Structures are given as structure tokens and as C-alpha cells.
Amino acid sequence: MKICVFGAASTKIDPAYIEKVEALGRKMAERGHDLVFGAGGNGLMGAAARGMRQAGKGHITGVIPSFFRDETIEAIFDDCDELIFTDTMRERKAKMEDLADAFLVVPGGIGTFEELFEVMTLKQLGRFDKPIAIYNLMNYYDEMETVLFRAINKRFIRANCRMLYLMSTDQEELFDYIEHSRPLGMDVHQLKDG
User: Fold this and answer.
1) pTM for this structure?
2) Per-residue pLDDT tens for 60-82?
3) Residue 194: what pLDDT?
4) Burial (CB count <10 Å: 0-12, 13-18, 19+), residue 23
5) Contact between 65 and 91 (Cβ < 8 Å)
6) pLDDT tens-digit map of 99-137
């Protein structure tokens, strides 16, 4: 499968996150998967790609807007098997979404949050039925899950939307979910009011 990893580009994060996501990249390759990612060379994007390379298998596709290179916004991972440049961030996300068979979200910032909620929204609206797994590494996403549950309890989000994704601290559980995911079997009206 082609698994799209969304995650941090920051160089300032705790090295423990880097180590765990490098291990995740190795495990992804060892399980026979390919990586699609935002082509960042630093942070958790770079860690996932380095882990894949350390395993010595798997195809790495990076997708990044050309202005990241032109304006030196962040380092680009220089060992991609395929590097795709887009004009905009929207095109970047659309390309990654099209290429991916599944999504694996690791800790990140504003861009990662946006990517996560975009794929959750697309799944809610029935645009695809790809698995979305959230790696709650070092309990990074606990508060986000609290916010989601609050929105469900206050009826801003349908309770069935909890089935759009799996959140776990366990890498094996995440990969098992991705590899054995089945269609939700629900239409948009069971997932969204409006």
C-alpha cells in the first residue's frame, strides 16, 4: 500500500519523537508499504523517510510546492525515489490524497492538523473510504480527541464520525488497522447533518 504520512517539519521538537517516527518508517517498509509524504527533510517528515531508507525497501514519493524550494522554506528530503513539485499547497494535498491508499498522521503543527481534518472531512463526505490512522505518540493528540468528543456530545459532529479514524499509541495496532480496514458501509447522511 501507499501510505501518506502527515507530520511535523520542525527541527526543534523532542528527539524522542524523531526516534519513534524513524522506527515507524522502518516498520512501514518492513511490512511492504511505500511512503507518500510532504517531502520535508526535517522533523517527523524527514524521520519517516529516513526510517524507510534505513530498512532498505519501499518507494518514497515526496510532494512539495515549488515555492518551498524557491524561498528556502524548509529542507527537502534529498533521497526521494520520486519528487513531485506543485504550484500550491492545495495541489500538494490533492496530489498526496490521490496517490495514497491510506493516511497515517504523526504529531505535527498547523499544516498537519489541516491535512488530518481535510482527509477526515473527505471521508465523512464520502469522497473516499481510505483508512485514517492517528499515531498518538507520547499522547500528543489526547486533547484533540477530547475536543472531538466534546463536539460529538454537543451534537456538532455525528457520533458515527468517531469511526472515520483510529487513534492509537501502538504502531502494530495502527498498521493492522490500515492493512485490514474495511469500508464503513455508511453514506454521507449517516455521518453528517445539514
Assistant:
1) 0.96
2) 999 999 998 899 889 999 999 99
3) 80
4) middle
5) yes
6) 999 999 999 999 999 999 999 999 999 999 999 999 999
CA distance 20 to 56: 18
In angstroms, the CA 102 to CA 32 distance is 14
Is 69 exposed, middle or buried, given 0-12, 13-18 or 19+ CB atoms closer than 10 A? Answer: middle
Give one DSSP letter per residue of the chain, joined into a string: -EEEEE----SSS-HHHHHHHHHHHHHHHHTT-EEEE--BSSHHHHHHHHHHHHHT-S-EEEEEEHHHHHTT-SPBPTT-SEEEEESSHHHHHHHHHHH-SEEEE-S--HHHHHHHHHHHHHHHTTS----EEEE-GGGTTHHHHHHHHHHHHTTSS-GGGGGG-EEES-HHHHHHHHHH-------GGGT---
Cell of 31: 511490512
